[in-house]
Amino acid sequence: MSDVSRSPADAEGKSVEARIVDLAIRLSVLALFVWGSLQLVAPFIGIVLWAVILAVAVHPAYLWLRARFGGRGWLSASFITLVALGLVLGPAASLGVSFGENIQDLAVGFANGTIRIPPPPANVADWPIVGGQVHKFWLLASGNLESVLRTLGPKLLPAGSIALGKIASLGLGIVSFAISVVIAGFLLGPGPRYAEGVRRFARRITSEHGSEFVDLAAATIRNVSRGVIGVSILQAVLAGIMLALFGVPAAGLLAFLVLIFCIVQVGAGLVLIPTVIWAWITLDTGSAVGITAASVPILLIDNVIKPFVMAKGLKTPLLVILVGVIGGTLAYGLIGLFLGPIVLAVFYELLVAWVNAPAAGEPQTTS
Questions:
Q1: Do residues 319 and 351 make contact, with C-beta atoms less than 8 angstroms apart?
Q2: pTM for the full predicted model
């Protein structure tokens, strides 16, 4: 029996095959650990992400307050956290109390029989297509509201369940955001140390531009927070003052709606335009003219102040930031308001760096 000697090529091939199998096993085990870790932290990703965004956005204010408080960082962080919690929980608590009182008043009114619907105007029947049905239903409700509610009750139950689910989801979102505010307060002090760790991680991914991308993300968060959140608060405050001065009912609630609609990029027009129409129908001419004149500059703030604030200090074109804000909000909700422009800004800078880099074999040009 003769020994068959193994050629060097065969030995090298088996060695490469063994290394490939070894690498595949290691990557599989690593992927399994990454997947398991993501499953464990998934419920907290949104809260932590909001906390990081808030900490980055208010860190300049923290540094300013720390200098005023004699270098006491814990006092500055506590003050910012309490103010932010007040801004989050104050309007939510007010709306919750108001909603509960309104429901209680409705229940008492139905029980006492004091809630009455006035009969419909005669011209309602002349409305095209739906006029006859609306007039008939309105007339029936004005005469026997209890019977109408008993008839509509089974049909309204699914809608009521959906509405209660949305309200519960909104309440859970407010609680989660409040937790994010508290976590952000703890991140303010050690924030620079954490930021340096993120820069080191980014440099491991792309050594040439890693730190620049981290700084770009931080600057984008601050500009978006000033340009979107800050300008939205300004619009809501101006709208609230205007509505209160002219005696518009539920001025506080309408101002809060202006804030929400401006933050999600719908705009204040969804509240102010119907208010102007209501003013021309209900109020005297002078008040209607005043509300209209005061609403115009509030509506124009979106087109004048917001773009200037968002683009200030950034190399990224304003169009990229605006597309990121709108697209991120549509795709991922409120948190996409910040994630969208960050992702697009980093992608834009990567694309510019790639386009400007010399191709293989192309001589570098010095400017």
A1: no
A2: 0.63
User: Position of tokens 């531009």?
Assistant: 209
- Exposed/middle/buried for residue 232 (C-beta within 10 Å: 0-12, 13-18, 19+): buried
In this predicted model, what pLDDT tens digit does every residue of 163-210 receive, in sequence order?
666 666 666 777 787 888 888 888 888 888 888 888 888 888 776 677
185 CB-contact burial (10 Å; exposed 0-12 / middle 13-18 / buried 19+) = buried
In the chain, the percentage of residues whose pLDDT exceeds 90 is 1
Best CA proximity match to 216, nearest among 305, 344, 66? 344
Q: How many CB atoms are located within 10 Å of the residue 55 CB?
A: 26
Tens-place pLDDT, residues 251-276: 877 888 888 788 777 788 888 898 98
Angstrom distance (rounded) from CA 231 to CA 228: 5
**For the range 280-288, what are the long-range contacts, defined as Cβ-Cβ under 8 Å and sequence gap of 24 or more?**
283/246, 287/246, 287/247
- Every domain of the chain and the residues it spans: 209-353
- Integer-rounded Cα Rg, in Å, for the chain is 30
Going by pLDDT thresholds of 50, 70 and 90, the confidence category of residue 1 is: very low
> Coil, helix or strand for 102?
helix
Torsion angle defined by CA atoms of residues 134, 136, 142 and 148, in that order, rounded to the nearest 10 degrees: -90
Q: Name the more confident of 308 and 64.
A: 64
**Mean pLDDT of the 215-240 span:** 82
Pairwise CA distance, residues 243 & 320, whole Å: 35
Q: How many CA atoms lie within 13 A of 187 on its CB side?
A: 20
Question: What does the alpha-carbon distance between residue 30 and residue 22 come to, in Å, rounded to a whole number?
Answer: 12
pLDDT higher than threshold 60 for residue 278: yes
258 neighbors 239 (Cβ within 8 angstroms)? yes
C-alpha to C-alpha distance for 84 and 322, rounded to whole angstroms: 26
Q: Where are the alpha helices (DSSP H) in 206-268?
A: 210-224, 231-245, 251-263
DSSP letters for 123-145: GGGGSTTTHHHHHHHHHHHHH-H
